[in-house]
Amino acid sequence: MFAMGSRSGHAFTSLTTEIGDKNSPLRQHFDARFPNRRPLQVEFKGSACQLLVDPAGANPGSLGAAFDFMVRMILDPSHVPLVALQGIRPGSRMLNAVLDVVAVAQRAAVGSREGRAAEELIRACWLFALTTEVYRTGIRPGSPLMVLGSRASVSAELLLGLAPDAAVDEMQELHLLAVEHLYPRVPVGASLALGPTFAGSELCNADADVIFDGCLLDIKTRLGDKTARGRSDGRACSKSWLRRGVGLTRHG
C-alpha cells in the first residue's frame, strides 16, 4: 500500500495526518476497501459508556497524547519517549532541556502506579505531547511552545510549567481510572514494547502505544460530541483506520 503511494509521487508524512486527509492514497485505500463502516459506528455508539472525566478546559488532543505517555512511563519508569524527541534539533538547548524533563518523568513515575500520580510526571508528559505534535504536524499557531522562541534560555522548570492546571487535573482523574482498571492487568516487570515503530514506519511515521503479551493496546481518550443531552461518544472512521494503518506498517 505504501509502495503504491510512493509510485504515485505522494510523500507520506505521519499515519495520523494521512488517515485524516481524504486526498491521501492511504485514506482512499481504506475508504474503498471498507465502505460499509456505518453499522460498526452505530453499534459502537450504542454501546459507549458515559463520560468518565468531566472536561476542565484542557486541549483534548494534547490530553490524549499526554495520557498515552503517562501510561507508558508508569508501566516502565525507565522508558525514554523517543518520538517526543524526534522534532527537536540535535544538540540544541531545547533538546537538552527536554532530556532533563525525561529524567524528571522517570523519577516521578516510580511509585505512581498506585494512588495519585506525581504532578511532575503529569507535567512532563504534557510536554512530550507538545513536542510530539511538532514532529508529526509541525508547530501550530497558539502552541505553548511558541513562547520559547523569545527566551534566552530553556530549562526543565520552564518546560514543566507549560502544562495548564486544567490539564493536570484531568490527567490525574484519568490516571486514577487507569490505577483501578488498567495497571492491575499488566504485571510489574512484564515484557512490554512501549511506543514501538515498525518496518513501514520508515515510509510513513507511525508508532503504537503499547504491546503487551503480543496484544496491541491502543490507548484512547475521547471527549465525545456535544449534544443537547450532554456528551455523546462515537467512532469516527479515521480512528478505526489508524489501527489498520498500524497493521500495514507492521506487515507491509
What is the structure about, briefly put?
The chain has 252 residues and is mainly alpha-helical. The protein is globular.
What does this protein look like?
The protein is mainly α. The chain folds into two domains: 115 residues, no CATH class; 134 residues, no CATH class. It is built from ten helices and five strands. The strands form two sheets. It has a three-stranded antiparallel sheet with strand order 1-2-3, with no helix packed on it. It is globular and about 50 Å long. The N terminus is likely disordered.
The proportion of strand residues reads 5-15%
Our count of domains comes out at: 2
Helical content stands at 40-55%
Distance from first to last alpha carbon: 7 Å
Work out the radius of gyration: 19 Å
Alpha-beta content class: mainly alpha
How many strand segments? Answer: 5
Q: Main β-sheet: number of strands, strand sense, barrel status?
A: 3 strands, antiparallel
Oligomer: single chain
Strands across the major sheet, in which order?
1-2-3
The stretches of 5 or more residues where confidence is low (pLDDT under 50) are 1-7
H/E element string? Answer: HHHHHHHHHEEEEEH
